Amino acid sequence: MAQTRINGDNKVGWPAVRKKLELLDRIGLLALVHDLYDANAANRRFLEARFLSSSASLEKYRRLVADAVYPDPFSRRPVSVRDATMTITEYRRSTADVAGTVDLILTFLEAGTEQAADLGYGDESYFGALERKLDAVAKSWSDLSPEVRKDAAKRLEWVRRRAQKIGWGYCDYVNDVVTTLLRSTGNGQTET
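and the corresponding structure tokens:
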């Protein structure tokens, strides 16, 4: 198997790239980052989220997640759980913002639950993805501030209500996890 060469070196991967980056001066490094910024939309989002950290940046990510999970039914765009998941991962890696990441996961859950309830969309793998996202919220729950948990609890209550008529065991799973989360924080909202 042939290896890709980087400026005459046989080494590939991050260690080889890092070695080359260490040779750049400030102007060269800024030019490289500028080229990466101009290369594609994902790079721009990543850098803006990392360095500008604004609500506008989070809103861009929310829209991408929602559109991937529940695209306009008339657009002929396919549902892409994978794209939504990659967008959430991109945001998390860019910002290390737990509250923002949970916000995006809740957006995924809301859009996915709405899609299933509105259009009867879903299969075992789809509902499995929704359940894994709910588990990710539960895993991060204790890392959230009380204020963020309060907002998340309202959103989870909405998901629970919307999921009531969805099959595949999803309704029961959502009810169990949301009830457990709300009880763990002393929030009395456990009616179904």
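(Above: one complete record from the training split.) The CA atoms of residues 124 and 168 lie 7 Å apart.
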